[in-house]
Input
Amino acid sequence: MAASPSTARAINDRLALRLLQQEGPLTAGQLKQLTGLSRPTVADLVERLTAAGLIAVVGEAGEQRRGPNAKLYGIVAGRAHLAALDVRTEGVAVIVSDLVGEVVAEASLPITGDAGTGPAVEQAVALVERTAKEAGADRLHTVGIGAPGLIDPASGELRDSTQLPEWHRRLVAALQERLPEARVSVENETNLAALAEQRDGAARDRDTFVLLWLGHGTGAAVVLDGALRRGASGGTGEIGFLPVPGTRDLPSATDCAGGFHSLVGAAAVAELAAEYGIDAEPGVEPVAAGAVRTAASAGRDSAGARFLDTLADRVAVGVASVVALLDPGHVVLGGEVGQAGGEALAARVRDRLAGLSPLPTEVHPSALGGAAVLRGALLTARDRAQNDLFGTPDH
Output
């Protein structure tokens, strides 16, 4: 059945807006060429989108050209402002961008464990408000939050966890209360990092891969056939609880200390580095990441190389389990430790994996590192805002 005129217009408008988002400013002639639409149809949609305040003339094409055909149309970036938050156990980072994702302000704030839930929430919300004001945003259209922990797939809310600060869960509701016009959503930090790596990083354009997060916590994000998999309870990727050889105990329902986390979590990595006499430069980055970075630049026969060998043995055990179950073909080592290890750690894990699994699997370090969570939160916020403002074909 043929689409109704209103549906056809919505489809054409969305196609043009997506092209302007991807390609930057375009002339009406370029839109005609890229969309395959007729000249009158393009003229109609340009007039419609301009009247709606979604696009505007931003210049002219060519040095000598003048007139209507030379007009360059671009998305009105200031039509909406977005915020992305990376919420950690020790603090929060925030960026504010325009509608096309250009960052216009950013800030971060440490929040100590003894701050108390109420003061911690107030500090985080105030940071968002100050950063938005610095960006010149009268209001925020969409706020995307990345946080550790499980996201309830039914409600979209951060589930209660005894291992995480209470202010994490309170923050989402507080932001929604203080920013009533904004669309506020929260997603697991590792899932957001995977989306960012898929869009802009080490898993660019891959439909199937796993991101293994190696940082303060341990987690995994699973993307299969182009879709992020969350599981029945939102727990897909809770690899820290994976029972593996080499640990002193088994994990429990409330504690992953006996699981894979006890081998590759930041505390375990720092302890292992100390055994090999690897020191990190004080105060520059977390101890575990700093030690791994130091070791990655060491010589082949050094203590640093032996430390990386042992760490790779540990990481490969968890990766082999993931590969046996999912056969992703591609694993990205993310988080602070994964980024710090770079190709030196990834190559070691890749070599060990080849001996543990018959399934061919590429292993690469994160291209975005610690910035991946904020990048993923911004990308999802931008997509939601554009879906709302640009409309969808069934609107």
